[in-house]
Write a structure and sequence with these properties.
Strand content: 5-15%
Number of helices: 13
Shape: elongated
Oligomer: single chain
Radius of gyration: 33 Å
Order of helices and strands: HHEHEHEHEEHEHHEEEHHHHH
Strand order of the largest sheet: 4-3-2-5-6-9-7
Structural class: alpha/beta
Number of strands: 9
Length: 342
């Protein structure tokens, strides 16, 4: 056996080290600790986000993005809209298009308003190259900041934070559309359909029902959405009255606002606060000046207002149990006395 000197061993170690350094390392080498993370995660937040994108877009709860994933619920919503082959449908908040494709099967055209550019792109890709591509128009941006296009029917899985403003934007849209089938938070939906005497009956109820027929369609559980919201949902159908009632909404809402300040108190009690009387007095003086009407001697606004309530028999009535006809009669009586609310 040949002898090996210390100098020869040192030389061999130096050559081995040099070869190991020059040898290229392959991706996924077991010696690369950064590659030993499960599922390819490197420990950085960017890596985690990239991996999550493989499972679809990241939904933003702050924008009310709760995607309806139950096809039976989607089909039920479309069926309740009673769509015709000639209809143009406005959809607010289409998301990834689960409801949109159901509408496209039955309507002539769908105009989808989507605030999130990422979801608008997802929807575009979903129909691209298919039979529905030319039936879909996407309007990217905030629906509350734009004029609505012409449409026959509106269908929406509504972002909950715009429920009230969207409802009244639709009600006052002209020309009048046929109907709207809208998904809302359960409590909001119940407030829309509440009747006099119901615990949720209030200003929202009577203002909406003045201009439209509102009916409850179905309840929708939170597990039908991704990600699931914190509350249950309901679908309502809104059918605008055509022609609409000839009522000045600002005047109407001014009266209703005062009456529902404390809906279980009498109307007389709600009209007595100093701020309310001062507002009505200022409006009355403006009305008199504009119509060349002289103020009565010893004019006291409180006596005039309470006098109208007594004459109409509503002094001891409570807003919680008054219907639309009651408020229309009261508003007419105030106007006859020259008292206005805006």
């Amino acid at each position: 056996m040949p002898k090996v000197t210390i100098q020869q061993l040192r030389k061999r170690n130096q050559v081995s080290a040099t070869n190991a350094t020059n040898k290229p390392r392959t991706i996924g080498s077991p010696y690369d600790k950064s590659q030993c993370k499960p599922n390819g995660l490197t420990g950085s937040s960017n890596g985690a986000a990239e991996n999550m994108r493989h499972f679809g877009p990241m939904f933003n709860k702050d924008l009310g993005q709760h995607i309806l994933i139950n096809p039976l619920v989607s089909q039920g919503i479309v069926d309740k809209a009673n769509l015709k082959q000639t209809d143009t449908v406005l959809e607010v908040g289409p998301g990834t298009g689960n409801l949109t494709v159901k509408i496209l099967e039955q309507a002539k055209k769908v105009i989808a308003c989507e605030a999130d550019a990422r979801l608008a792109a997802e929807l575009t890709k979903r129909v691209q190259g298919g039979p529905f591509q030319y039936k879909l128009e996407i309007l990217q941006g905030d629906v509350m900041k734009r004029d609505l296009p012409f449409f026959d029917v509106c269908i929406s899985n509504t972002p909950y934070q715009i429920s009230s403003p969207l409802t009244f934007k639709l009600i006052f849209h002209r020309p009048i559309f046929r109907c709207a089938v809208l998904m809302f938070q359960r409590e909001f939906a119940l407030r829309l359909i509440a009747r006099p005497g119901d615990s949720l009956y209030g200003r929202l109820s009577i203002n909406c029902q003045l201009y439209a027929k509102v009916t409850h369609i179905m309840k929708v559980g939170k597990n039908n959405f991704k990600p699931p919201p914190n509350v249950e949902s309901s679908v309502v159908k809104i059918e605008p009255l055509n022609p609409p009632p000839p009522v000045d909404f600002e005047e109407w809402d001014g009266l209703v606002r005062i009456a529902f300040t404390r809906k279980h108190k009498t109307l007389a009690a709600n009209f007595k606060p100093t701020a309310t009387m001062q507002l009505l007095e200022d409006n009355y003086k403006t009305f008199c000046a504009a119509n060349d009407v002289m103020l009565e001697d010893g004019f006291v606004m409180k006596e005039k207002v309470l006098g109208v309530l007594d004459q109409t028999g509503y002094s001891d009535s409570r807003a919680a149990k008054m219907d639309i006809d009651d408020f229309l009669k009261l508003l007419s009586a105030f106007h006859d006395a020259g008292i206005h609310f805006c």
